C-alpha cells in the first residue's frame, strides 16, 4: 500500500511506553496524550457500563454506524447528555438533547484535509465562504471551541485554529495568504518516491514490520483466530 505524501508529511516515532487507562472492558493502551482513540465497536458497551457519560458527535450517526442499532439506542438512554453538531437530520440527531447546526461548505472558509496525505495526487486548496450562514448556523470549530471554553478546557484565542493551519502550511513554505495568490487558491504538492515509505513509516527500533506483536499473543487472539478458522 502506497502512503502518499502530504502538505505536512510527518510521522511520529512509535512510543516505547504506552499510556494505560482502565475501563469496564479491561485495560486499554493508547499513545496520544489526552486522546484515547477507541473503535466504535466498543462505544455501546462503554456507554452501557458508565465509562462514557456524555457524547458529542460531529456529522456522525452512531445509531446506524455502530453495530447493533437497538443495543446502542438502549445504552444511549444512560447518557447524561448527547449532542449533535450537524446540518443533516439523522437517526442519532433525533434522539439528542441538543442539535447544533453547523455551517455548510458554502458558508465557511475552508481548506482541504492537509495533515494525513490521503490523496493520490497531493494538493492543498483554500476556499473563501461564498454566502453568509443561514438559520443561525455556526462553524463547527466555533461550536466546539465555545463548549471547550465553557468547560474550562481551552484558554486559547479564537483565531488559534487558523494559526495552527498556517503553522502546518509553513512546513512546506506556504500560508493561507500565499495560497490566495495562486491560481484557484491551489498548490499541487507532488508525489514522494515510493520507497521512502520505509524511512517514514517503519520506525520500530528494529526497523522491521511487527507482524506478530506480543500484545496479540498475550491476549490469546491467535488461539481465538485458529478456533474460529477451524469452525468455519
Helix and strand topology:
Layout (H helix, E strand, L loop, with lengths): L18 E5 L2 E5 L12 H7 L4 E5 L3 H4 L3 H8 L4 E6 L11 E4 L8 E2 L11 E5 L12 H11 L9 H11 L5 H6 L4 E3 L8 H5 L12 H5 L2 H11 L1
Parallel strand pairs: 3-4, 4-5
Antiparallel strand pairs: 1-2, 6-7, 7-8
What would your notes on this structure say?
The chain has 232 residues and is an alpha/beta fold. The chain has a single domain (19-185), classed as 3-Layer(aba) Sandwich (Rossmann fold), CATH 3.40.50.740. Helices cover 29% and strands 15% of the residues. The chain contains 9 helices and 8 strands. The chain has helices at residues 43-49, 62-65, 69-76, 140-150, 160-170, 176-181, 197-201, 214-218, 221-231, and strands at 19-23, 26-30, 54-58, 81-86, 98-101, 110-111, 123-127, 186-188. The strands form 3 sheets. The chain has a 3-stranded parallel sheet with strand order 3-4-5, with no helix packed on it. Strands 6-7-8 form a 3-stranded antiparallel sheet. A two-stranded antiparallel sheet has the order 1-2. α1 (43-49) packs parallel to α3. The longest helix is centred in the middle third of the chain and has 11 residues, at 140-150. The radius of gyration is 22 Å and the shape is globular. The chain starts with 18 loop residues before the first strand and ends with a helix.
Amino acid at each position: 500500500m502506497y502512503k502518499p505524501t502530504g502538505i505536512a508529511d510527518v510521522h511520529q516515532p512509535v512510543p516505547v511506553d504506552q499510556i494505560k487507562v482502565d475501563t469496564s472492558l479491561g485495560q486499554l493502551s493508547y499513545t496520544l496524550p489526552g486522546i484515547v482513540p477507541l473503535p466504535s465497536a466498543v462505544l455501546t458497551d462503554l456507554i452501557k457500563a458508565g465509562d462514557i457519560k456524555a457524547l458529542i458527535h460531529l456529522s456522525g450517526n452512531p445509531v446506524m454506524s455502530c453495530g447493533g442499532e437497538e443495543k446502542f439506542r438502549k445504552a444511549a438512554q444512560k447518557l447524561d447528555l448527547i449532542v449533535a453538531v450537524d446540518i443533516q437530520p439523522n437517526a442519532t440527531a433525533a434522539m439528542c438533547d441538543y442539535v447544533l447546526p453547523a455551517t455548510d461548505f458554502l458558508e465557511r472558509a475552508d481548506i482541504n484535509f492537509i495533515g494525513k496525505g490521503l490523496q493520490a495526487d497531493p494538493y492543498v486548496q483554500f476556499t473563501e465562504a461564498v454566502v453568509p450562514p443561514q438559520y443561525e448556523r455556526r462553524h463547527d470549530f466555533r461550536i466546539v471551541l465555545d463548549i471547550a471554553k465553557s468547560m474550562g478546557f481551552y484558554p486559547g484565542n479564537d483565531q488559534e485554529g487558523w494559526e495552527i493551519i498556517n503553522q502546518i502550511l509553513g512546513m512546506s513554505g506556504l500560508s493561507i495568504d500565499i495560497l490566495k495568490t495562486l491560481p484557484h487558491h491551489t498548490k499541487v504538492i507532488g508525489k514522494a518516491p515510493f520507497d521512502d515509505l520505509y524511512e517514514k513509516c517503519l520506525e520500530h527500533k528494529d526497523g522491521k514490520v511487527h507482524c506478530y506483536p506480543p500484545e496479540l499473543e498475550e491476549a490469546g487472539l491467535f488461539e481465538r483466530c485458529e478456533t474460529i478458522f477451524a469452525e468455519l
